[in-house]
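step 4 of 6: structure.
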Amino acid sequence: MHRVTAISIVSALSITSLASVATGESHAEKALLDAIAARQAQMQLISFNMGLLGAMAKGAAPYDAATATAAASNLASVAKLDRSILWLEGSVQGQVGNTRAKAEIWTDAAGFNEDAMALETAADGLIAAAGTDLAALQAAMEPAGKACSACHEAYRGPKN
Amino acid sequence: MRRLRRLALLAVLLGGTCFWWLTRPDTLPQDWGADLIPDPAAGALVFAAAGCASCHAAPKAEGDAAKVLSGGHAFASDFGTFHVPNISPSATAGIGGWSMQVFAQALLHGVSPVGQHYYPAFPYASYGLMTAQDVADLYAYVMTLPASETASLPHDLGFPFTLRRGLGLWKTLYLPEGYHVTGDLSPSEERGRYLAEALSHCAECHTPRDALGGLDRSRWLAGAPNPSGEGRTPNITPAELVWSEDDLGAYFTTGLTPDYDSAGGTMAAVIRNLAQLPESDRRAIAAYLKRVPAIP
């Protein structure tokens, strides 16, 4: 009887430990998936604000200083989100989720940081320009677009 | 028995001769282009449209550095790794010693100065549709660029792909007879077809390939797996690419999509090239894309 109890305790313990290994793995994967979802939401906010500015810049929407300033301020805030908890190592294309993040984000962390800083700088520049006039906005859109493209060229893979 | 052996020998000889004949590299006459007047300024636009620097400049080279065609990019594929050569006008490391006829033979027929086939990673299947004048202009422009003494690396391929002679068969199977999109086209659509199918060689990435690396032309521009890694090159037929011609023109200039995503990956380099072309050329490519058969 004691023996049976011992066996059942041992098996119960091993099942628990096995289960915790399994959930441990899915916890890790969930953390990666959450970070991917969060940074995709960040990109969505960037494109939303860029869209408002871009429509004015190319004449598809009338220029409005207040809207432009608000969009540029949003863009600058979103661009500055702390990257350390968003770009988790391992959240890479082909490994997990539907991310298009290339391994170079981590193997060339300095280059990635430099490109991200270029967006922060361009977005800061847009705040002042957006409230000035249409010509200033149009000029300031160029470095912002270039910042998007430069980072996507080096660090984003093709569509999945 | 002796008769059988003789027959076998004859068959081998015949087979060999057939192979030799089918795989012989096409050459151009020595006086090719003698009647043309090359214009290097026009060649600069051909250079941009054909995307030469995207492969032949050093990796990550930008601005003026991208005009030094030292090579150095490596492209992984199912057949091995292709190393892009130096095509700067250095007489020793590059193509400085090439005549215009030799240059044209490389672009139009994919044949080297010593009469060997080039691998189709060099998109001569598209460049073969180039006009003689554009080839001459491009030659004149490339020869004005700075020389680089960087040595080219040999390709790193598995057997039997190391045997270049066999590429003659590949060419017989896959080199196009002419344009893919045919029919009644407006002058702008025709210009767009020339840019897209010959110079900018869109199909080389956007059309899927079969097991031998030839384009599956029944799925022209319908998207393809990325040969060098994860993800896919998108379908750009009207079945999926629903942007207006205005949107396409803007994308080819700024790299920004209608919903303010941006071009990335290798397309970012393509946009840098297209942005140098006249607005009418970018509109022409947009017009052409609207005439491509829709393939879901």
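step 5 of 6: annotate
 - Chain A is about 75% helix and 0% strand.
 - The longest helix of chain A spans residues 2-57.
step 6 of 6: archive
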